[in-house]
Design a protein that fits this description.
Blueprint (H helix, E strand, L loop, with lengths): L1 H23 L7 H13 L2 H6 L17 H16 L9 E5 L5 H10 L2 E6 L2 H10 L6 E5 L12 E7 L8 H10 L1 E14 L9 H13 L8 H9 L8 E5 L1 H4 L1 H12 L1 H5 L3 H23 L2 E9 L1
Parallel strand pairs: 1-2, 1-4, 2-3, 4-5
Antiparallel strand pairs: 5-7, 6-7
Helix pairs in contact: 1-13, 2-6, 8-13, 11-13
């Protein structure tokens, strides 16, 4: 009997260890330095890049085409947001600021395919180092370590501001919008995508949903989430905004990314195994949060907001 139960015991023990590690090493937001430290660690251990490629954001899956390559879906997301936000109307050579550029995946597409002169900023020194390593000589991209809440650029420095999945790490959403719109020239284009909660004031979360939100905040250094409606109001009422803000919920286009981000480890097992045994544990440590994200976005507790407006 013991021999029959032993494999089951090992499985239970393994997931118990994962659960303990997951809980005791929660990445709670304390300050912007905790965001920097988390992304430094993710970049230096190379696991996220091996699994997600150069783009640390969700992919775009056109309606009815759920089974497309995960990494191609991420590239497609960039092109879809460019088209939706009308950045493709800008002439080649336009100055674009990529706020929260990661390791530069979007910046390189904006420079290579659209001919923009791109400046990418991130709070993570390790990401800047890696972005520079991945960027070919001659491509109009430069990367700097900078806090998005304190941009070191003059007013109106850019023809467009681009930001994908960075705002959820900002503890002051109004300041985040202020700085982006301040550096955008009058008539320039803002293109932004972010993780939002549903409107929790008009539709309060249940006890279980509160537990889920707590984990999503603590596991991936998020100080808070706000709704698409609330962030749209922040953009609309900003003194540097034209006042016309268009927003949409792209949940249906992006949700397949969550399961795909897990399946990448199955499709490309060597990408994990080549980093050593510890990488396996680290990859398993992220699965509960990814599953919670999938559930939250699938149920509408979380929403993938996209925004566009003019300066």
């Amino acid at each position: 009997m013991f021999e029959l139960l032993f494999p089951f015991f090992l499985i239970v023990l393994f997931f118990l260890v994962i659960a303990i590690v997951w809980r005791n090493n929660a990445r709670k937001y304390i300050s912007s330095s905790t965001v920097a430290s988390a992304y430094d660690a993710w970049t230096q251990d190379k696991l996220l890049e091996r699994l997600w490629g150069e783009h640390i954001h969700l992919g775009f899956y056109p309606s009815g085409k759920k089974h497309i390559d995960f990494r191609k879906a991420k590239v497609q997301f960039v092109h879809e947001l460019v088209k939706w936000s009308s950045l493709d109307k800008l002439p080649r050579g336009s100055r674009v600021l990529d706020v929260g550029c990661g390791i530069g995946g979007s910046s390189r597409i904006l420079a290579e395919y659209y001919g923009f002169n791109v400046t990418g900023i991130t709070i993570s020194p390790a990401q800047v180092k890696r972005a520079r390593e991945l960027t070919p000589d001659g491509l109009n991209c430069n990367f700097q370590v900078m806090d998005a809440l304190d941009l070191k650029f003059e007013d109106g420095s850019f023809d467009a501001v681009w930001s994908v999945e960075a705002g959820a790490h900002m503890n002051d959403k109004t300041r985040f919008a202020d700085e982006m719109l301040r550096t955008l020239r009058p008539g320039g284009y803002l293109a932004l995508a972010d993780w939002n909660s549903r409107d929790l004031e008009t539709n309060p979360p249940s006890f279980f949903e509160n537990l889920v939100l707590k984990q999503l905040l603590e596991q991936w250094v998020h100080p808070n989430f706000i709704s698409i409606k609330d962030f749209s109001i922040i953009l609309r009422t900003n003194e540097n905004s034209s006042g016309k803000v268009i927003s949409e919920n792209w949940n249906s286009y992006t949700n397949p990314s969550w399961y795909d981000s897990i399946f990448e480890g199955i499709r490309r097992p060597f990408s994990i195994l080549s980093l050593g045994p510890l990488a396996i544990l680290k990859s398993m440590r992220e699965i509960p949060t990814i599953l919670l994200m999938n559930w939250a976005f699938g149920k509408g507790l979380m929403e993938f907001g996209v925004y566009k407006c003019r300066g």
